[in-house]
């Protein structure tokens, strides 16, 4: 069921990719692409906080293929997020964890951002990976990856400050 669900979500994203005329996010989408595109020639772009260092770094190998290359990155990040949602649901012993693929993958905001070079899809991937690690009781690994959240998106600092009380409540010093 999970394979069918991920295939259905992927087909929907391909349809969006084929029919969308412009990237979501307007100029922000273009700017993130250009940061990654020119980071080879200007490595200081890898450290620019507006461009989001994590996104620029992982978009680097996709950017030479143009905007479609970075769309592919976000396409894979979004499908990866949906899949890890499923794995997290399985870890939590949910009855139908494959439904999480649809619940994440077919949200209107996800539909809007999958065809872009915005940083939201990669942020979602990192965040669900951290959640999966927490559910797997891998607190040190989860905390390690969570410490990089501010480099993924600026809002990552707020997310990081919400993780700290969780760790304290769980007795994970």
User: Span between N and C termini?
Assistant: 39 Å
Instruction: Please state the oligomeric state of the protein chains shown.
Output: single chain
Rg, rounded, reads: 17 Å
Which range does the strand content fall in? under 5%
- Given the structure, what is the number of helices? 10
Helix content: 55-70%
Largest sheet: none
- SS elements, strand count: 0
Order of helices and strands: HHHHHHHHHH
Mean pLDDT: 92
Shape: flat
3D structure, described in words:
It is a single chain. The chain is mainly α. Helix content is 68%, strand content 0%. The protein has ten helices and no strands. The chain has helices spanning 2-19, 27-38, 53-59, 67-91, 99-105, 108-114, 120-135, 139-146, 149-152, 156-169. Helix 1 (2-19) packs parallel to helix 5, helix 4 packs antiparallel against helix 5 (99-105) and helix 4 packs parallel to helix 7 (120-135). The longest helix is centred in the middle third of the chain and has 25 residues, at 67-91. The relative contact order is 0.14. The model has no long low-confidence stretch (mean pLDDT 92).
Compile the SSE list and pairings.
Elements lengths: L1 H18 L7 H12 L14 H7 L7 H25 L7 H7 L2 H7 L5 H16 L3 H8 L2 H4 L3 H14 L4
Helix pairs in contact: 1-4, 1-5, 2-3, 4-5, 4-7, 7-8
